[in-house]
Amino acid sequence: ACGQHDQASLGRMRAGQRAEMTAGGVDADGFDTVWDWARRHAEDNIAAQPPEELEKGCARLIEMEEEAARMGEVMQQMALPPS
What does residue 81 show for φ and ψ, rounded to 5 degrees? Predict the structure, then answer.
């Protein structure tokens, strides 16, 4: 809804999360069911948002993604050398 991810990147995110979850013991079909439900639920919520609220939410989401990227960079710099 905010335009920061195309369908291919959403597919990669889903595949990555699915792989991590199934490696942790989550049933693949169960993951797919929950993912599909969550996506439909999110799409419904997004469609119900007034344009000005959606714009504010997108701005906040982008800020959060940028902050997460900065935190990831800091954490990599702080990583301990292998023992």
Answer: -65, 155
pLDDT at 74 over 90: no
Helix (H, G, I), strand (E, B) or coil at 25: coil
CA Rg value for the chain: 17
Give the relative orientation of helices 7-23 and 28-48 as an angle to the nearest 10 degrees.
Answer: 140
What does the pLDDT read at residue 83? 62
Q: Which residue bears the tokens 């301990």?
A: 80
| DSSP code, position 80 | P
Indicate the DSSP class of residue 24: T
8 A C-beta contact, residue 70 and residue 17 = no
